[in-house]
Amino acid sequence: MSELLVEMRGISKRFGKVQALKKVDFSVKKQEVVGLLGDNGAGKSTLIKILVGYYQPDEGEIYFEGKRVQFRSPRESRDLGIETVYQDLALVNLMPLWRNFFLGRELMIKFGPFKFLKIKEMKTQSLKILKDIGITFRDPDEAVAMMSGGERQAIAIARAIHFGAKLLIMDEPTAALSVGETKRVLEHILEAKKKGISVVFITHNIYHVYEVADRLVILEKGEKIGDYKKDEVTPQQVMDIIAASAGVK
Ligand SMILES: Nc1ncnc2c1ncn2[C@@H]1O[C@H](COP(=O)(O)OP(=O)(O)OP(=O)(O)O)[C@@H](O)[C@H]1O
């Protein structure tokens, strides 16, 4: 449990006059679930976008599995096993479940110069893989637009697990979900952890992440103001820390 998967050291980033991050250290161990918390504008998204190569840091270094990395695009980080699930961008609404599952990684068969999609296989496999992480869909042709927010998150998580993600980053995954759906998404996160995956869970709401988190990191105005093992703090204490730092703005 103690081996580091990701280590970000002394990360700073400025956008014009806004110092979005100031010398932030952030790490994730193998098979660890880290809640990344903080108010609006705290710097959570910027930190993650730097980690995946969407932005370059002004200062600081990033290590992945002990090696220095400088990702120039999200594709490069994805190739090494860092998968981000955004609340809205995870899936293509008009496409059916199976297409979404294999999007960008379609199973193909070659006949001479031609390539064909292995549609039947993708349909069967997507249902089976989802079932393996505890979600039963009957129809692989169901359009994702018709699904609930929780089901969409589940598909995105199952896809990441299946394609060998080492780190799953979830940006406010439960913000728009009902209590029941939130609970199921949390179960899928624990399922991902059991399979050896590390998770960063970005949220405003400590109660959404507390149950599944091993560690809680709090950002405020671009600085890291807290880094706790779960058993060192209660949810109320985390809320108080965030509120207190917001109060001195
Ligand atoms: N592309 C950008 N250009 C200019 N300023 C930016 C940009 N991205 C972020 N910022 C600024 O950097 C600061 C940190 O923003 P960031 O989105 O990382 O915060 P956050 O903690 O993710 O907030 P939220 O929870 O509201 O998404 C904010 O002041 C924001 O306005």
Descriptive terms for the model:
binds adenosine-5'-triphosphate, 12 strands, six-stranded mixed β-sheet, 249 residues, single chain, 33% helix, alpha/beta, ABC_carbohydrate_import_ATPase, Rossmann fold, 8 helices
* Secondary structure category: alpha/beta
Uncertain runs are: none
Number of strands: 12
Top-tier CATH class: Alpha Beta
Query: What's the alpha carbon Rg, rounded to whole Å?
Result: 19 Å
Helix content: 25-40%
Instruction: Give the name of the CATH superfamily.
Output: P-loop containing nucleotide triphosphate hydrolases
Number of domains: 1
Percent strand: 25-35%
Indicate the CATH topology. Rossmann fold
For the biggest β-sheet, the strand order reads 6-9-10-3-11-12
Q: If helices are DSSP runs of H or I spanning 4 or more residues, what is the number of helices? A: 8
Arithmetic mean pLDDT: 89
Shape: globular
CATH architecture: 3-Layer(aba) Sandwich
Ligand list: adenosine-5'-triphosphate
Sketch the major β-sheet: 6 strands, mixed
Q: End-to-end distance, in Å?
A: 37 Å
The run of helices and strands is: EEEHEEHEHEEHHEHEHEEH
